[in-house]
Amino acid sequence: MAGTAVRGRLTWQTATVGAVVDETPAVRTLSLEVPDWAGHRAGQHLDIRLTADDGYRAERSYSIASAPGEPVAITVERLDDGEVSPYLTQDVRPGDEIEVRGPIGGYFVWDPADGAAPLLLLAGGSGVVPLRAILRHRARVGSSVPVRLLYSARSWGEVIYRSELGSPADGVEVIYTLTRQQPPGWTGYARRTDPAMIAEVAWPVAQAPLAYVCGPTNFVEAVASDLVGLGYPPQRVKTERFGATGTP
Amino acid sequence: MSPISRGFHRRRQEAGDTAGRVPPGQYLTSDFPVLSAGPTPHTPLPNWTFSVEGGSSPASWTWQEFQALPHETVTVDIHCVTRWSKLDTSWTGVSLDVLLDAVSYDAPYVLAFCDGGYTTNLPVADLRGGKAWVAYGYDGNPLPAEHGGPARLLVPHLYFWKSAKWVRGLRLRETDEPGFWEMYGYHMYGDPWREQRYAGD
Amino acid sequence: MEALEEGVVDGNAIGGLLIELFGTEMTTAVGTCAACGAVRQVAEMAVYRPMLGTVVRCRSCDAVLMVFVEVRGVTCVDLSGLAQLA
Asked: CA nearest C49: which of B184, B35, B186?
């Protein structure tokens, strides 16, 4: 019918796992074919639900790793004592069915309509996933908004999307801090984030930047506090906390 | 109808000689998960008191007074309504028999109250007879704050949500009034051996 | 207002639950704490998930704003800690 938008279902639906890509030894990206997917915004997440044959169910949330317009993909970090992440990163095969609910989130999202203000993206470990979706969206729409990504990871081997971030689009600068282990000859940051580091990488407040901070709760709390301490208005610092996963 | 996730299962029960020690629907863990409904309180010990309110002679102890009470170390199994059970946990604390003997009362129920506002309800009878303690030591060390320190209630024969963290006292009551989780549908009594997880079980 | 502890998350984490319960995106909904009057978006509230249920608290005063408990497939929703949710 002319003029009628197709709405996706905001409740559980069955998705089929497509291709899987191992980003690092503990991190895997899964493409998902979701029949009634309504499209998503950069920064949103989806919920996954697994059902065992005894009826036991587990639900988890994962940030969408792909940009709007790209096939839905999630990037999952395997937690050693996890229940769902070992399954998704080791056992799941293309063709398997899992339930998804989404897209979810209207707060931790970026659209070009948010303006020309420079973006400051701050990632703690797997917190880089929604920020990568933002970067991909920016590139796909041809935005020239200046971006700095500060990515805190334990070691170079644990950097997700390494080759993609190694050749960033024009106007994107990626800065790493490797907190536990650095490769020989490393001249970059080699410590957990602190106010001095944040002050060095953050866009000046006068440019009215927009910050997105994502990662474990401890990381987000510290970084958001550092930004507000620099003078960033709290409403210009968007946060998404993962809990205790991926601590340095 | 949800599709079955091929090969997915809950975290497995550990093997071991545990005949008769694991209630129905539970699995064993060697971890000690931290489950909190709010921020960890940090009441300084000089400000800490434990009180038994209601009754005709309420009592209150400061931390120093509490430490001077007869205490014991016990090894018990604990069972969480979220299905994990942990065997042979070692605690040090004061028996509720000692604390309730210090007051004169006639009430059949208590509401335990805690720093941070958490509450849970219990029959007095379930605190009596060597079945319950106010514990301030775990595994030979001072009880960590994340597990309820400086002191928590320990009532191992009931689901562990009744073993209120950061406990500060008991309010004696004529009627059994639901505490925090009980108000939202958890069982008023909570016997793991009868799988009394939710109201109506 | 202290830093949230490791293991505590924010309202983004209950976005799916809120869509199921309210039928719409709620992480940008603005809540007013009935205890202290603080006003903030759901996404910026503190979320505790001790597995017995979900407890949403005010970041300014720690008061309970919302509680969600699922019992036998039915979710009990308590919003009495909010003076307003828009």
From this structure: B35
